[in-house]
Amino acid sequence: MPDPTITKIDQMINAFRLLQIPADIYTEVCKELLKDSREKAHLGGVRALGAVRSVETFVLIAEVLKSDFSSAVHRLAQTHTSEYQRLENLGILTKVLAMRNLPRDTRLLALQKAEQAARSAERSGGPNLFTAGPNGTLTHPTAIALTRLGQTLERQKDNEPDSDLRRRMTDLANHLRQVLPS
């Protein structure tokens, strides 16, 4: 992209949302923007990655946070990663946590955001959050997402080589086991 202005980045984002740009090409353009030598391009790449919530964009934004970019680029990346702690993104974090081949920093960031999402769900869930339906299964989408997160953590924690991550996974899995009906 010769001059990655905000207008051009926003046009690319809109074209992606209108399905005029395939996901793989969109992601490759974002990666190229991050490889560019200009801060303006880096900011555009992070802006575009942050406009789309997916496992791949989370991983790429996490890579930006641990790479040598300007403080402005890091701040924008942090702003976008904070969006992942929203309850509607819990499924993405669960998928990231299920991926064993990711760097520790990426998995830790996903775990931190999942912890924040779980706390948020408990605070704002209301009385129907953990209510089971007639067949005994949870019916609230947030409770279902928290159950899936707990199941993923149970599977991953015993094979986690990093002791701090393993402890945090265990703590969150235990907490979810306590608050979710069995």
Output the structural class: mainly alpha
Mean pLDDT rating: 90
What is the percent of helical residues? 55-70%
Instruction: Give the SSE string.
Output: HHHHHHHHH
**SS field, number of helical segments:** 9
Q: Major beta sheet, specifics?
A: none
Low-pLDDT residue intervals, each spanning 5 or more residues: none
Shape: globular
The whole-angstrom Rg is 18 Å
Tell me the β content.
under 5%
Task: Give a topology summary.
Blueprint: H1 6-17, H2 23-35, H3 39-50, H4 55-65, H5 71-82, H6 90-98, H7 104-124, H8 141-157, H9 163-179
Describe the protein's architecture and organization:
There is one protein chain. The chain is an all-alpha fold. Helix content is 68%, strand content 0%. It is built from 9 helices and no strands. The chain is globular and about 55 Å long. It starts with 5 loop residues before the first helix and ends with a helix. The mean pLDDT is 90.
